[in-house]
Design a protein that fits this description.
Residues 63-212 form the RecA family profile domain. InterPro entries: AAA+_ATPase (IPR003593), DNA_repair_RadA (IPR004504), P-loop_NTPase (IPR027417), RecA_ATP-bd (IPR020588), Ribosomal_Su5_D2-typ_SF (IPR020568), Ribsml_uS5_D2-typ_fold_subgr (IPR014721), Rubredoxin_2 (IPR041166). A motif (RadA KNRFG motif) lies at residues 249-253. By secondary structure, this protein is an alpha/beta fold. The chain folds into three domains: 1-38; 65-272, P-loop containing nucleotide triphosphate hydrolases (Rossmann fold), CATH 3.40.50.300; 277-450, 2-Layer Sandwich (Ribosomal Protein S5, domain 2). Helix content is 25%, strand content 25%. It contains eleven helices and 21 strands. It has helices at residues 72-78, 98-111, 125-135, 150-160, 185-202, 223-227, 325-339, 364-376, 402-411, 424-429, 444-450, and strands at 7-10, 16-17, 33-36, 87-92, 116-120, 142-146, 164-168, 205-210, 230-236, 242-250, 258-264, 267-270, 289-296, 299-312, 318-321, 346-352, 384-386, 389-390, 396-397, 416-420, 437-441. The chain has a nine-stranded mixed sheet with strand order 6-5-7-8-4-9-10-11-12, sandwiched between helices. The chain has a four-stranded mixed sheet with strand order 13-14-16-15. A three-stranded antiparallel sheet has the order 2-1-3, with no helix packed on it.
């Protein structure tokens, strides 16, 4: 008889190999290949269910009614509150403010009369208390424990019986029932599964803090995101106080909402109207600046693009901050070919205001206008914005959700909007444009001509 041979399986993606390797050949993850025996196919006997299946019309829905955290920006992302029994995973870079935000959530939840349990695996209880005093998040109904063992954490849950659990963080908790070191794929999967089972059984909302890898992805096995109900990412630049909570998965609401916050000395402060954070106020128009409207999830945000065109250089530089460098190179090529601006030998610098990172293609036209304004040293009229995606043929393409973008610009008092041709019906759908004039153009050259930023295109020599 042939000897049965054990295989080695990746705990991350399920890839298998006949021998052990340090790196998975499928997902390229390190240290996730473990020895597993060949699965045995066997029949499973039916068992008597503890609860009988009932028609869906007889299932009570009151226990799943949403509860507000009283933090409007977070409730907006969650879909108007937290569903009891839901498990939320909040991931973000170190120092971005995850613990500060969740301590504020836990305190406000406790002040509403509900028991809240905060489990800290990274700090001692005294350290968390000091941070709570600094941020004003101390309450008698907020229970605090510093634990790293899953069994003890479950014991605290049974004793306190909270309606909200905050676990900071899942990578610091371990159990003897799973193999591997704390934070490993097996440990993280077992911890999350246990918390999810308790949350569903006790109708307790649970928020789990997760770490991220150096690439920005959520650390741990991919199945971690499948085990939870909601996945939130906490984003922000360390050199800027602006923070954003973005939903990437939400079983109970929209998965494209964004909440805006600002880090201050007293903690996390929500920003209900963040448009002013990414624009600058000038007494007089300044060359090389143009405002556009981007979309973060479903929320329109104003963003100011600044450009600087320096003197000719033997080795011209292209430098960006907050923008895609390849997008800048493409826009420069279209400007030179279709609009007559000769910039191949000049340094070009492009940046956003306020540390915003803009990846929306609708920023192309504003970037081109800012570069042309800087090259001619000619400012735009005040309260002017440009909106549109630039094609390689020099044409302008329409952008999604133009109605919301223009309505936001009109609300903030803009007087002129340059948009791609074919969006005429947008002006009829937007309820109030006020005194804002909307001008449609078909190409980049037409947009620059409308703003007085053109140069004659040199004739090709024969």
């Amino acid at each position: 008889m042939a000897k049965k041979q054990d295989t080695y399986t990746c705990t991350e993606c399920g890839w298998s190999s006949v021998r052990w390797v340090g790196r998975c050949g499928e997902c390229q993850a390190w240290g996730t290949v473990v020895e597993r025996g060949a699965p045995k196919l066997r029949s499973v006997a039916a068992s008597v269910p503890t609860e009988q299946a009932v028609p869906i019309t007889q299932v009570p829905a009151d226990s799943a009614r949403r509860r507000l955290t009283t933090i409007k920006e977070l409730d907006r992302v969650l879909g108007n509150g937290v569903v009891p029994g839901a498990v939320v995973l909040l991931a973000g870079e170190p120092g971005v403010g995850k613990s500060t935000l969740l301590l504020d959530v836990a305190a406000k939840w406790a002040r509403s009369g509900e028991k809240t349990l905060y489990i800290s695996g990274e700090e001692s209880a005294s350290q968390v208390r000091l941070r709570a005093e600094r941020t004003g998040t101390v309450d008698d109904r907020l229970y605090l424990a510093a634990e790293t063992d899953l069994g003890t954490v479950l014991g605290h849950i049974e004793q306190v019986r909270p309606s909200l659990l905050v676990l900071d963080s899942v990578q610091t908790i371990s159990t003897a029932e799973a193999d591997g070191a704390p934070g490993g794929p097996s440990q993280v999967r077992e911890i999350t599964g246990a918390i999810a089972r308790v949350a569903k059984r006790q109708h307790m909302a649970a928020v789990i803090v997760g770490h991220v890898t150096k690439d920005g992805g959520i650390a741990g096995p991919r199945t971690l995101e499948h085990l939870v109900d909601v996945v939130l990412t906490f984003e922000g630049d360390r050199h800027s106080g602006f923070r954003m909570v973005r939903a990437t998965k939400n079983r109970f609401g929209p998965a494209d909402e964004v909440g805006c916050f600002e880090m201050s000395e007293s903690g996390i402060v929500e920003v209900p109207d963040p448009s002013g954070l990414f624009t600058s106020e000038h007494k007089e128009p300044v060359p090389g600046t143009c405002v556009t409207v981007t979309l973060e999830g479903r929320r329109p945000l104003l963003a100011e693009i600044q450009a600087l065109v320096a003197a000719p250089s033997s080795s011209p530089r292209r430098t960006t901050h907050g923008l895609d460098s390849s997008r800048l190179a493409m826009v420069l090529a279209v400007i030179e070919r279709k609009a007559g601006h000769q910039l191949a030998a000049q340094d070009v610098y492009a940046s956003t205001v306020g540390g915003a990172r803009v990846t929306d293609p609708s920023v192309d036209l504003a970037l081109a206008v800012a570069i042309a304004s800087a090259a001619l040293d000619k400012p735009l009229a005040k309260r002017t914005l440009a909106l549109g995606e630039v094609g390689l043929a020099g044409d302008l393409r329409r952008v999604p959700a133009a109605e919301r973008r223009l309505a936001e610009a009109a609300r903030l008092g803009f007087e002129l909007a340059i948009i791609p041709k074919g969006s005429r019906d947008v002006t009829t759908r937007v309820p109030r444009l006020g005194a804002m004039k909307v001008t449609e153009v078909a190409s980049l050259a037409d947009a620059l001509a409308e703003l007085g930023l053109t140069r004659p295109i040199p004739a090709s020599g024969g």
